[in-house]
User: Which sequence fits this backbone?
């Protein structure tokens, strides 16, 4: 297993982690500069942040700093109630692939969606099997496109508490079943993003990481699970402040040959987003070296 204690060369910052500084929105160019100043070598930005600053601006800035993208957040949200909705999702996902390509991301992360309308507060139906079928079909269609521009797709299984509104793919096993079906040749075009927040509890986690193997382990997201958790979405903990045995999981990843970045992804309305982003980034570096 790689020794992280000496430096932070394998640290990536998911830019949602410093989306706000002292409670105020922080523009992506400032986030990028703050990361580069600290010798952070990789980031994973969100589409809305990139759109606000302009894709060309961000692309040039990332290249000027020599930063890598451990991923691009995010595509997905495939389910819809009708053909028009499915087509809109398809087109938007193709644009996400194109943006990821322009930014030279390692992968496009897919949060696949749940019941249509649930994210806005009213689910259009209760048929989660139908959503899962649309997710499968949506990924299959997107894969045809993403292969042509060589942008790997990383399915991110989300904790089951998000099954209705964000992702009806909830375990590594489920995600890997889709990979096996759609990319049986293990081409590298389709894999998984392993986010410890979502999968740490899974009794099959070690087994499924081994099943994934190096070809399908495309990203590794870290934060911590706080007890109690005050908010289902925006109360993620800093590594070391919760109950997840992060080094153990990283060890399982690396036993398969994973040698990518550990990407810190923290959504924290009540704590980290209220602090100064410089303090947050410095803490990420310290914890990356000490407890990841
Ligand atoms: Zn994640």
Assistant:
């Amino acid at each position: 297993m790689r020794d992280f204690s000496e430096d932070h060369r394998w640290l990536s910052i998911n830019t949602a982690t410093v989306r706000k500084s002292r409670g105020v929105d922080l523009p992506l160019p400032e986030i990028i500069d703050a990361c580069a100043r600290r010798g952070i070598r990789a980031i994973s930005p969100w589409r809305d942040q990139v759109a606000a600053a302009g894709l060309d601006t961000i692309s040039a800035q990332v290249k000027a700093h020599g930063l890598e993208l451990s991923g691009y957040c995010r595509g997905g949200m495939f389910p819809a109630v009708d053909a028009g909705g499915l087509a809109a999702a398809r087109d938007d996902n193709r644009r996400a692939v194109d943006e990821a390509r322009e930014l030279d991301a390692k992968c496009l992360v897919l949060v696949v969606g749940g019941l249509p309308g649930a994210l806005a507060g009213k689910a259009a139906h209760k048929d989660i099997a139908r959503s899962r079928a649309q997710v499968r079909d949506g990924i299959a269609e997107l894969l045809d496109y993403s292969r042509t521009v060589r942008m790997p797709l990383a399915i991110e299984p989300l904790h089951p508490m998000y099954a209705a509104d964000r992702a009806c793919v909830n375990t590594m096993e489920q995600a890997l079943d889709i990979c096996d079906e759609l990319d049986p040749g293990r081409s590298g075009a389709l894999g998984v993003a392993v986010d410890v927040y979502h999968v740490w509890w899974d009794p099959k986690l070690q087994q499924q990481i081994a099943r994934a193997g190096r070809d399908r382990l495309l990203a590794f997201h870290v934060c911590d699970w706080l007890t109690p958790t005050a908010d289902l979405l925006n109360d993620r903990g800093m590594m070391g402040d919760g109950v997840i045995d992060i080094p153990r999981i990283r060890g399982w990843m690396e036993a398969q040959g994973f040698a990518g970045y550990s990407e810190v992804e923290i959504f924290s309305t009540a704590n980290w987003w209220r602090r100064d982003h410089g303090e947050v980034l410095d803490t990420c570096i310290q914890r990356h070296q000490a407890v990841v």
